[in-house]
Amino acid sequence: MSTQPQQISPGGLLANEDPTKRDRFANGHLIWQTILELRNTGRRINRRALADLTGLKPGVVDDHVERWIEKDQLRRAGNGELEVIEQFPATRPISTTDLPDGMVKLEVGSDYLELTPAEARTMARMLYGRLHELAQAESSNKAVVLCHELARELKEARRQIKALQSNAQATDVEAKQLVLLA
């Protein structure tokens, strides 16, 4: 009979220790590893999940989360959810040169590649997919902004219509009163 090794959550060894004996660094490391595991497995990252998985008090989790938010390592994603802010190295200079024989010279920082025409076309198709994805995200963001602007304008128009209706009712009452007095 084969037994599968028991899966331990991130920092499981630390979590099994007495929480009062752990220092701030160990707690921070445990919480951060838990955040990364939740992100990598596509699960929601929130205060309650972090406290449950690490065995730490919500206040301790909050202290670390607030510090990471201030350092731009995490951001609030609404409804108590958190998101990891990806940190990338600085962008390197990029250049391409088409050579007379059809080869393409690609330089990224100090890295240099010579691509055959077929490789260049393959690379172009791959990058086009990323470009298309970026264009869709851009148009989606514009649509959301437009939707919010239209919702604001609609709310204002409804407010104005309501004011006009109440004003019209008031003038109707005045006109009826004038007819009765006459």
What does this 3D model show about the protein?
- The protein is of the alpha+beta class and 182 residues long.
- The strands form 2 sheets. Strands 3-4-5 form a 3-stranded antiparallel beta sheet. A two-stranded antiparallel sheet has the order 1-2.
- α3 crosses α4.
- About 7% of the residues have low confidence.
Topology summary:
Layout (H helix, E strand, L loop, with lengths): L11 H4 L8 H17 L6 H8 L3 H13 L3 E5 L2 E4 L9 E5 L5 E5 L2 E5 L1 H65 L1
Antiparallel strand pairs: 1-2, 3-4, 4-5
Main β sheet profile: 3 strands, antiparallel
Describe the global form: flat
Question: Would you list the SSEs in sequence order as H and E?
Answer: HHHHEEEEEH
Distance between the termini: 104 Å
Spans with pLDDT under 50 lasting ≥5 residues?
Answer: 4-15
Q: Taking all residues together, what is the mean pLDDT?
A: 82
Strand content: 5-15%
Strand order of the largest sheet: 3-4-5
**Number of helical runs?**
5
Summing up helix and strand content along with how strands pair, one would put the structural category as alpha+beta
Share of helix, binned? 55-70%
What is the number of strand segments?
5
Radius of gyration: 30 Å
